[in-house]
Design brief:
- The strands form two sheets. Strands 1, 2, 3, 4, 5, 6, 7 and 8 form an eight-stranded mixed beta sheet that branches. A seven-stranded antiparallel beta sheet has the order 9-15-14-13-12-11-10, covered by helices on one side.
- It has helices at about 20, 25-45, 70-95, 100-105, 135-140, 145-150, 160-165, 170-175, 195-205, 225-235, 235-245, 330-360; strands at about 5-15, 50-55, 60-65, 110-125, 125-130, 155-160, 175-180, 185-195, 215-225, 250, 265-270, 270-280, 285-290, 300-310, 315-320.
- It is an alpha+beta fold and about 375 residues long.
- It folds into two domains: about 5-200, Nucleotide cyclase, GGDEF domain (Alpha-Beta Plaits, 2-Layer Sandwich); about 205-360, Alpha-D-Glucose-1,6-Bisphosphate, Chain A, domain 4 (2-Layer Sandwich), CATH 3.30.530.
- Helix 3 (about 70-95) packs across helix 9 and helix 10 (about 225-235) crosses helix 11 (about 235-245).
């Protein structure tokens, strides 16, 4: 049988400055650094992305079109870049090696190219390969002139086909129009996002998280799925309505992208619970207020938190902030209802996770590059 065409978002994470970095440095240390960076990027991208192959100083990944929307796509790309920046920062603080490779690693950066289109799977040398015009196109987009606009720092370049397919509003997102003339394909319209600017916003934006010590009520569960999956189930309207057992969610996304400033109307018959997102930190936590359709009800401040487990699953918590003294009686009256509703919701979430796990998996991904773990990933204490 002929292979069946499928639709996907393709992305390539490419290490900038690689050639200069490996020139005249200790090759063993340099390759170990690149392996560490690639490991960081791929782990941050999946899911929703899946690794197709490593290509020297780049990772080619893809997400089937029904597994990602515009908000999740942009969050995934940005969070992968943030993970890279945090990794370099942590290595710099903990590493005492003075070799040329370790000294130069802080000059490395990452660029992303993202495209939406069709592909087929084919076997080559016993391994699955993706093929098709759109696979070629996303690779051709790596050789671009975006640097003339942004200078020598990180960016994400989205093809116009990707922007349209994912429902992204480029003007609302502040994306910069760009075009590339590609041989045999023609002019390809694109949109560029400044990741250096996104990183600056990330580190300068004040945090708003309900801490465990400040919580009035905590409900928590462990799920056998990566935190990106549970995050998507909890936060995206199409999944949120199911586990919250509502009739639907009407999302008013700030600037066309889910995040801080987004307002959700969770419909329950003729009534609606109005949620306002105050802080959005994929895939760590989200903080919201909820206005219940009850006369004189105070807004309830709460956070959803997502923490990796050593077994590959996630520890999920629902934390409600302590109320003001004048609102305590209302909270006490509502507590049994909230506990019952979220207990039932967690059961639905567990079913959703099991359904995702039951979907037949494709062939195993290529193995991650082997790092000799010269740079610690966890804090340690001397005995």
């Amino acid at each position: 049988m002929l292979p069946k065409a499928e639709s996907a978002c393709f992305a390539i994470a490419d290490i900038s400055g690689y050639t200069h970095f490996v020139s005249g440095v200790e090759l063993d240390h340099a390759q170990d650094i690149i392996a560490d960076i690639m490991d960081t990027l791929v782990r941050a991208l999946r899911p929703p992305f899946r690794l197709a192959k490593f290509e020297g100083d780049a990772a080619f990944v893809y997400a089937l079109a029904d597994k990602v929307d515009g908000s999740l796509l942009q969050d995934s790309i940005e969070q992968a870049y943030f993970a890279f920046r945090k990794r370099l920062r942590n290595i710099k603080q903990a590493n005492s090696c003075e070799c040329q490779a370790c000294s130069r690693m802080q000059n490395l950066d990452v660029k992303f190219v993202v495209h939406h289109g069709d592909f087929i799977r084919q076997k080559m040398a016993g391994r699955e390969e993706l093929a098709g015009r759109d696979v070629i196109l996303v690779h051709r987009l790596l050789k671009n002139d975006v640097g003339k606009t942004f200078g020598p720092h990180a960016y994400a370049l989205y093809s116009d086909a990707c922007v349209r397919a994912m429902g992204i509003d480029p003007a609302a997102q502040g994306l910069v129009a760009h075009a590339e003339a590609i041989e045999h394909i023609g002019e390809t319209k694109c949109w560029a996002s400044d990741l250096e600017q996104a990183w600056t916003r990330e580190i300068e934006t004040a945090r708003n998280l309900v801490q465990r010590a400040d919580a009035y009520m905590i409900m928590e569960r462990d799920f056998a799925a990566p935190r990106q999956v549970v995050w998507d189930f909890v936060t995206s309207p199409q999944h949120h309505a199911r586990w919250q057992r509502s009739d639907g969610v009407v999302e008013n996304a700030a600037k066309g992208r889910r995040g801080a400033g987004t307002q959700n109307h969770c419909l329950h018959g003729k009534d609606a619970v109005i949620e306002d997102i105050l802080d959005w930190r994929p895939f760590d936590y989200v903080t919201l207020t909820a206005q219940l359709p009850i006369p004189d009800a105070p807004k309830i401040l709460f956070s959803y938190t997502f923490d990796d487990r050593n077994d590959g699953g996630v520890h999920f918590e629902f934390r409600i902030a302590r109320p003001k003294p004048k609102d305590l009686l209302f909270y006490e009256r509502m507590r049994p209802t909230l506990e019952a509703n979220f207990t039932a919701g967690f059961d639905v979430l567990r079913t959703m996770v099991a359904e995702r796990a039951a979907v037949p998996t494709l062939e195993d991904e290529p193995p991650l590059p082997v790092s000799h773990a010269r740079f610690a990933r966890q804090p340690f204490h001397g005995g």
